[in-house]
Amino acid sequence: MTNRVESHLTTDLFDFLQRERFVTISTIDYETGGPNVHAISWVFSPNREQIRFALDNRSRIVKNIKQNPLTVLTLITSDTTYSINGNAFIKEENLADVPLKLALVELEVKEVRDVMFYGSKITYGPKFEKTYDLEAATKLDLQVMKAIKKA
């Protein structure tokens, strides 16, 4: 997708976002007006025009989106890095069937760009592991992803 701008997710990106992934989310800080970046993992795309993600409903991200919906998700795939721009909104203040107080946010995709610098590619994608109780983490991840997909 180098040097192209898309108005929706490509098939490869849609497929990539069918399970939990490491992504960063950039919003406009509600207090400073400057950029605010966080890493998140509970992310899912129900179609090529939307991306949903769950996060603590007390998060600064939630406050930022309520003040200004402009949002960018950045994801690193097996070959490149993408910037996905759009308007986000709080779809649910409290995600049902999850033991934590999580908000469900939906991003309406407006622009997808391959932002990898010229003449390069990603050779090893980011990997992460949960550092707390693995059994509890797995159970929670399943609950959250199921709730995101059902919403």
Fold and architecture overview:
InterPro entries: Pyridox_Oxase_N, Split_barrel_FMN-bd. This is Pyridoxamine 5'-phosphate oxidase N-terminal domain-containing protein. By secondary structure, this protein is of the alpha+beta class. It has 3 helices and 8 strands; from the N terminus they run E-H-E-E-E-E-H-E-E-E-H. The protein is globular and about 45 Å long.
Question: Average pLDDT, to the nearest integer?
Answer: 93
Distance between the termini: 30 Å
Binned, the helix content reads 10-25%
Query: Low-confidence spans: pLDDT under 50, at least 5 residues?
Result: none
Query: What is the CATH homologous superfamily assignment?
Result: Electron Transport, Fmn-binding Protein, Chain A
Shape estimate: globular
Rounded to an integer in angstroms, the radius of gyration calculated over CA atoms is 15 Å
Structural class estimated from helices and strands: alpha+beta
- For the record, the CATH class is Mainly Beta
- Looking at the structure, the CATH topology is Pnp Oxidase, Chain A
Strand content range: 35-45%
The biggest beta sheet reads:
8 strands, antiparallel
Tell me the number of strands: 8
Q: Which architecture per CATH?
A: Roll
**Total of DSSP H or I helical runs spanning 4+ residues:** 3
User: Helix and strand string, N-terminal first?
Assistant: EHEEEEHEEEH
Pfam families: PNPOx_N
InterPro entries: Pyridox_Oxase_N, Split_barrel_FMN-bd
Organism: Bacillus mesophilus
Protein name: Pyridoxamine 5'-phosphate oxidase N-terminal domain-containing protein
